[in-house]
């Protein structure tokens, strides 16, 4: 019976010992797993956030450079268009002015060459003829012819 009691006591003590080791091992493993997971999660999160922020900044700088390039190109195009339009307008005005002066000089030459006395005489004859025709018409009406 003593041997039975000793076996039972040794069995109980072994069970208690193994149970406490299991609980301790589980709590230690749980803590270690938790610490490992937290470290791995933090490293992964940092890596992902770092990569995203690097890509975002690189894209931001690239986009800003593209916008600046487009603005500079637009500024150049506007300046070129303005200069071209100004030059064309100036050339058109000069051409129109020269053409107008040429026509004025031709008209002046024609007028200087023409004989005004002849023109005045011709106009007088036309007016007198018109008056005579009108007088004949009026007299015909008055006299009843």
Keywords for this entry:
single chain, 145 residues, mainly alpha, 2 domains
In short, what is this structure?
With about 140 residues, this protein is mostly helical. About 95% of the residues lie in helices and about 0% in strands.
SSE arrangement:
Blueprint: H1 2-113, H2 116-143
What does this structure look like?
The chain is mainly α and about 140 residues long. It has two domains: about 1-115; about 115-145. The protein has two helices and no strands. It has helices at about 1-115, 115-145. The protein is rod-shaped and about 180 Å long. It starts with a helix and ends with a helix.
Number of helices, counting only DSSP H or I runs of 4 residues or more: 2
Shape: rod-shaped
Sheet having the most strands? none
Instruction: Give the C-alpha Rg.
Output: 58 Å
Compressed to H and E, one letter per element, the order equals: HH
Kindly state the mean pLDDT as a whole number? 79
N-end to C-end Cα span: 181 Å
- Which consecutive residue ranges, at least 5 long each, have pLDDT under 50? none
């Amino acid at each position: 019976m003593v041997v039975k009691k000793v076996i039972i006591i040794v069995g109980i003590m072994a069970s208690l010992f193994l149970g406490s080791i299991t609980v301790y091992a589980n709590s230690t493993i749980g803590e270690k797993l938790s610490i490992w997971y937290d470290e791995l999660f933090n490293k992964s999160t940092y890596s992902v956030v770092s990569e995203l922020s690097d890509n975002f900044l690189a894209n931001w700088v690239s986009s800003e450079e593209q916008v600046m390039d487009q603005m500079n190109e637009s500024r150049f195009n506007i300046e070129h268009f303005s200069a071209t339009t100004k030059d064309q307008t100036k050339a058109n005005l000069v051409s129109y002015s020269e053409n107008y002066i040429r026509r004025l000089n031709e008209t002046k030459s024609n007028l200087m060459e023409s004989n005004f006395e002849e023109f005045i005489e011709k106009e007088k004859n036309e007016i007198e003829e018109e008056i005579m025709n009108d007088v004949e018409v009026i007299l015909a009406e008055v006299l009843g012819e």
